[in-house]
Amino acid sequence: KKFVVGLTGGIASGKTTVANLFAEYGIDLVDADVIAREVVSIGSDGLKAIAQRFGQSLLLTDGSLDRAALRAQVFNNPEQRLWLNNLLHPMIRQKMLDQVQASTSAYVIMVVPLLFENHLDSLVDTTLVVDIAPELQISRTMQRDGVSKQQVEHILASQMTREQRLAQADNIIDNQGEYELLRSQVLALHQQYLQLTADQET
Ligand code: ATP
Fold first, then answer.
1. What residue spans define the domains of the chain?
2. In this structure, are residues 42 and 64 in contact, taking their beta carbons and an 8 Å threshold?
3. Class of domain 1-27+106-202 (CATH, top level)
4. Of the residues 7, 8, 11, 16, which should be mutated to test ligand 1's pocket, given the most ligand atoms within 8 Å of the CB?
5. How far apart are CA 31 and CA 112, in angstroms?
6. What is residue 124's three-state secondary structure?
């Protein structure tokens, strides 16, 4: 059985940056955000089911999903939201497991922003949290996305708190310092995971 590391962290904590460092060591990545887009891509069963329930008005002229229109449909509508989650979550989960099975690297990094919130930690063998203080989350998001402080605070409020996340972490990466400090932490963890993978095989 493939050893799976669940990589998570709040907005702009550095998940993508960390995942790319693991990829440099040849480790395959399974990205929940990418898969969540794939299950509603043009021609997908997910998109067909959504168009059937909500109507063709949820499609853009090129046939792709109008995400804003879908958000409006499920906003303040728990019944529709539940239907949508019941449709998409099993599809996303299955696709993630398929990609893990298809991987040929020593272990797999599964990048899941809402790993704990959506209870996807049940799919992984160990959890790795990228940690930075909320003030840094705010400044890095504002800089990267050109959004206001208020907009970031709104997103922060929708995610679990730093303390809740850290309490569930098997390992923690501190990404408040220089990039080089990040690199050395990732290398140490990579070696640790290779060891765990080897232990699992014997
Ligand atoms: P999101 O949750 O929004 O998808 P993320 O957790 O994947 O974000 P990244 O995109 O990797 O986070 O990083 C957020 C921003 O912070 C990026 O602009 C990135 O370049 C920057 N960043 C990451 N690590 C550092 C660091 N150690 N020092 C300075 N900036 C950093």
1. 1-27+106-202, 38-104
2. yes
3. alpha beta
4. 16
5. 7
6. coil
List the structure tokens of 45: 């069963």
Question: How sure is the predictor about 201, in pLDDT bands with cuts at 50, 70 and 90?
Answer: confident
Say what the pLDDT of residue 196 is.
93
Q: Can you give the C-alpha Rg of the chain in angstroms?
A: 18
Render pLDDT for 11-58 as a digit per residue (tens, 0 to 9): 999 999 999 999 999 999 999 999 999 999 999 999 999 999 999 999
Contacts of 35 (CB under 8 A, 6+ apart): 92, 95, 96, 99
The ipTM, to two decimals, is: 0.98
Nearest to 123 by CA among 1, 28, 4: 4
CB of 144 closer than 6 A to ligand 1?
Answer: yes
Please report the atom of ligand 1 found closest to the CA of residue 19: 11
Index of the ligand 1 atom closest to the CA of residue 179: 27
Please report the pLDDT score of residue 199 as a whole number. Answer: 85
> Structure tokens of 70?
């879908």
What is the C-alpha to C-alpha distance for residues 70 and 180, in angstroms, rounded to an integer?
Answer: 41
Residue nearest atom 19 of ligand 1, based on CA coordinates: 14
Nearest atom (ligand 1) to Cα of 175: 27
Please give the distance, rounded to the nearest whole angstrom, from the Cα atom of residue 62 to the centre of ligand 1.
32
